Amino acid sequence: MISHISRFMQEETNFLFIIFRTPHQRKKIRRREMTKVTSALETFGRNILLSSNSKRKEYDFVWKHLSSCQKILDVGCGVGLFLHYAPDRIIGIDINPHNVNFCKSKGLQAFVGDALILDFPDDSFDGVHSSHVMHVFTPHQAMTFVKEMCRVCKPGGKIVVTLKHDHPYFWQNPENSRPYPPSVFYEMSRPQASTEKPRNNPMWDDLPQFEPVDINYRHPPLYYVMMYRSRNRLRVSMALNVLQCKFGLKKYWTFDAYSIVLENRKQLSA
């Protein structure tokens, strides 16, 4: 009986509050409710984006080239989505200790590490994978990054790199340094310069020795939505872009990211 009376009093109080609240209070409530809706949309879109299903096309392409490798390094493993493909054969490194701890909590092999100074001996892995890392580096750092992956990969091994291409939303992430188109990898692996055959643009010595052998493209949404007026509108924009891609509404004639497969052609270490 007492509980029923308490519930009745609470309902009456809520009813009176709704009737007598000021326009300013109503506006605040509407804003709060809208924030809940947009947050739910953003969470829904982000869950799709980060789910293994949304990454499956990318990772299936990567795995097609690395599945025969007995020991694989995942540089910038994040929350370990790729590590799940073969937890006993893939080792992940990430600069973020929170990501590493999360991976370990799932029983995955992950360690804190620097992509520019890989703490592994030469020829340690049959294959190397890196997803969405290289574009945060300057050109000099990017060359170091590729050299390090080639160094720890055995001769004849495969290196698969996924990164964002030049697209309007590339610049919305403050950590991104510059986009690297696929042609960069052909320039990186050009024959070494010599007195007999000098290069027109000699930027680096000791270029990595590899050959691009395959590539896979990711296509952007059909209509790229980006509303900057408020955080809520930005959240809605991100969710709409993700949902377009989820349902196949894409620009299939261009790409906003790609995965390229490099065959390591360096000589055996002495």
CATH topology: Rossmann fold
**Number of structural units classed as domains:** 1
CATH second-level architecture: 3-Layer(aba) Sandwich
In percent terms, what proportion of residues is strand? 15-25%
Distance between the termini: 87 Å
Determine the structural class based on helices, strands and strand pairing: alpha/beta
Low-confidence segments: none
Count the E strands: 7
- Superfamily (CATH H level) name: Vaccinia Virus protein VP39
Report the principal-axis shape. Answer: globular
Radius of gyration: 25 Å
Structural notes for this entry:
The structure is a single chain. This protein has 270 residues and is α/β, with parallel strands linked by helices. It has a single domain (25-264), classed as Rossmann fold (3-Layer(aba) Sandwich). Helix content is 40%, strand content 18%. It is built from seven helices and seven strands, in the order H-H-H-E-E-H-E-E-H-E-H-E-H-E. It has helices at 2-20, 23-50, 52-66, 97-105, 139-152, 183-188, 231-246; strands at 72-75, 90-94, 110-112, 125-131, 153-164, 210-218, 257-264. The protein has a seven-stranded mixed beta sheet with strand order 3-2-1-4-5-7-6. Helix 2 (23-50) runs parallel beside helix 7 (231-246).
